Amino acid sequence: VQSALQALYPPFEATAPTVLGQVFRLLESSYHGDGLCCLLQFLIPAKRLFEHVRQAACAPYFNCIFLHEGWPLCLHEKVVVHLAPLNPLLLRPGDFYLQAEPCEEHSARITVKHLSHDLRTVEETPIPEAAYALLFTNEWLEEINGDRARAPLHTCLVATENGIAPLPWSKIAT
């Protein structure tokens, strides 16, 4: 598990407390402590998904040096794509977060999670595979907001060892 996560969230010494904490929460809540089941049904498919997403996001910047080696999944110690749900009480209007989650057997997807229109529940919007190439761009968020008939999303919640922090999407997409 650690080696799979180490490749996805570099520098792992900075992201490990956050990522491993999310994995342990997921392991207990969704897999009842069965680490092998979690690895096979979610973490390995998520690793393939993240590799695909990273490739698609980085392709336009071929031969460029990235400010953060883990981009787009993380920005140094800030985890952008979460492995477990965040506390819904942390969401405010305009906030959202990205979460990988299992879907179908032995596959994973990324969903956008944000407050519902009535501000009482968390809405989930699965991101289609065709959108992965644009996912970490300002254009992607503009398209998401274009489909919404309410307040636009603008702030992504990222996780650190010290908790959850709001970050303008433009800081992640740049």
UniProtKB/TrEMBL annotation:
This is Rho guanine nucleotide exchange factor 40. It comes from Aptenodytes patagonicus. It comes from the Eukaryota.
